[in-house]
Amino acid sequence: MHVVVGSENPVKREATTRALERFGPVVRTVSVDSGVDEQPRSVAETITGAENRARRALEACEADYGVGLEGGAARFENAPGLFLIMWAAVTDGDRLERASGPSIRLPDPVTERIAAGEELGPVMDDVLGTDGIAEGEGAVGALTGGVVDRSDALASAVTCAFGPFRADQYRDS
User: Fold this and answer.
1) 31-72: per-residue pLDDT in tens?
2) What proportions of the chain, in percent to the nearest 5, are helix, strand and coil?
């Protein structure tokens, strides 16, 4: 199985490889434009970014599947605060499937800076005194005390977005 990920971020490649490892994937990456803001600020914008990355990756490279991963920040009805969210999209060129990864409430000082227009990665780097957190444990790793890192979280999203291509229950959907 040949898979192309619509980002050159090594964490996104690792997450996709981990999610699909039982199928022995050959995973490549390609830089594509998500078509959304650098810091998506809604579920809809985050999903659109993942979809665009999946489609554009498959258009750019010969592969069986294109994978798009996008992180964002969003508010949910009945849940106070701003949440870090992650979405994946997988396409075979005909079908496009989507799934979310885990979400976690962002600390108030981080929320204030995101609401003021800053991007999560640089904000987290500033708060933590790190450089390049988005290509390592990610905000989710820092905010769970290392229990779940960004690769784990994104792998969950990829697994669930890929599921409908494998599960019989979706054959006629």
Assistant:
1) 999 999 999 999 999 999 999 999 999 999 999 999 999 999
2) 45, 25, 30
Q: SS3 for 76? A: strand
Q: Which pTM does this prediction carry?
A: 0.94
Mean pLDDT on 101-113: 96
β partners of residue 5: 29, 67
Q: Are 89 and 159 in contact (CB under 8 A)?
A: no
Q: Shortest CA distance to 29 belongs to which of 3, 50, 62, 48?
A: 3
Tokens read off for 71? 């992180």
Q: For 53, phi and psi rounded to 5 degrees?
A: -65, -45
> CB-based burial of residue 144 (10 Å sphere; 0-12 exposed, 13-18 middle, 19+ buried)?
middle
Q: Which helix (H) or strand (E) holds 112?
A: helix 108-115
Structural domains present in the chain: 2-170 (3.90.950.10)
Which string of DSSP letters, residue by residue, matches 44-68? Answer: HHHHHHHHHHHHHHHHHS--SEEEE
